[in-house]
Amino acid sequence: MAWIELLIAGILETVWATTLKLSQGFHKTNFAIYTIVAMVGSFWLLARAIRSLPLGLAYPVWTGIGAVGTIIVGVIFFGDKLSPLTWGFVVLLLIGIVGIKLTV
């Protein structure tokens, strides 16, 4: 269950980062509200997950899910351009996240 909570917390991290951009510095109220709700949900689920998972494992996985998710959202929805080398590092990040999960 802790791993599912951690996965959802990471996805919510991607959501709040995305809605933070869409809020234009908290000037668009609806996106600002979505940002705050997603942040609270993400932190709450992370807090639940670290009750049974080691902090040194859960936190990097949480941030990794959020980082990779945000990169993908940036490319798909905001037209961010990444070099092939950057994509290589994204793949390494994914390998690290999966590796951490597999070795616990």
From TrEMBL:
The keyword Lipoprotein does not apply. Its main location: membrane. It is found in: Cell membrane. Keywords: Cell membrane, Membrane, Transmembrane, Transmembrane helix, Transport. It comes from Paucilactobacillus vaccinostercus DSM 20634. The keyword Membrane applies. It comes from the Bacteria. Belongs to the drug/metabolite transporter (DMT) superfamily. Small multidrug resistance (SMR) (TC 2.A.7.1) family. One of its GO terms (cellular component) is plasma membrane. This is Small multidrug resistance protein. Pfam families: Multi_Drug_Res (PF00893). SUPFAM superfamilies: Multidrug resistance efflux transporter EmrE. One of its GO terms (molecular function) is transmembrane transporter activity. The chain crosses the membrane at residues 33-50, 57-79, 85-103.
